[in-house]
Automatic annotation (TrEMBL):
Transmembrane segments: none annotated. Gene3D superfamilies: Cytochrome c-like domain. This is Cytochrome c domain-containing protein. InterPro entries: Cyt_c-like_dom (IPR009056), Cyt_c-like_dom_sf (IPR036909), Cytochrome_c-type_DH (IPR051459). It comes from Hymenobacter ginsengisoli. Keywords: Heme, Iron, Metal-binding, Signal. PANTHER family: BLL4482 PROTEIN, BLL4482 PROTEIN-RELATED. PROSITE patterns: CYTC. Residues 1-21 form the signal peptide. SUPFAM superfamilies: Cytochrome c.
Length: 150
């Protein structure tokens, strides 16, 4: 009799455990964790950002209101990757408005950076400061550079 009860208790416990296992939420995967190549690119991109972009766009990507625009969830950062690569390779000299602030200073071209460095820094920016977007590939940067005057 006592054996039967023990068996029942075990069976119940087992059932509860397996139910819990089924209901455990899937571990949160970040894009970077799922893709080691992307994680490495982000790491290299952080170095480029610190060397090149940080003076204007600041450590937190927040920019300087009415001088240097933020890189936080803007349509330029999260949108078309070719346009984004074009901004870094050719600079930007057109008045833009972000979050109600006007920007009309020119961003100088950073075309001395290699295709790899541009891909890395943009992958970093697209996955920092609260941004989350796909990696920028070297081939995508290369294609944009090919359209620019030498
Ligand atoms: C000398 C200052 C300066 C540096 C260095 C600089 N930027 Fe900019 N950036 C600007 C300014 C000013 C604008 C706005 C230009 C305009 O309105 O025409 C801008 C615009 C942008 C934009 C589009 C607008 C937005 O905020 O989404 C992106 C993206 C961007 N920069 C990324 C970068 C990246 C990445 C680097 C480093 C590789 C970099 N910038 C380096 C000054 C700078």
């Amino acid at each position: 009799m006592i054996f039967k009860q023990a068996f029942l208790a075990l069976a119940l416990a087992g059932g509860v455990l397996s139910l819990q296992a089924q209901h455990r939420p899937a571990p949160k995967k970040t894009a970077a964790k799922a893709d080691p190549a992307m994680a490495a690119s982000i790491k290299r991109g952080a170095v480029v950002y610190k060397n090149v972009c940080i003076t204007c766009h600041q450590a937190d990507g927040g920019g300087v209101p009415n001088m240097n625009p933020p890189l936080i969830k803007t349509q330029y950062v999260l949108g078309d990757k070719a346009r984004l690569a074009h901004i870094v390779l050719a600079g930007l000299a057109e008045p833009i408005e972000i979050d109600g602030n006007d920007y009309k200073q020119h961003m100088p071209a950073q075309n001395y950076l290699t295709d790899q460095q541009v891909a890395d820094v943009l992958t970093y920016v697209r996955n920092s400061f609260g941004n989350k977007a796909s990696a920028v590939q070297v081939a995508e940067v290369k294609a944009v550079r090919a359209t620019l005057p030498k």
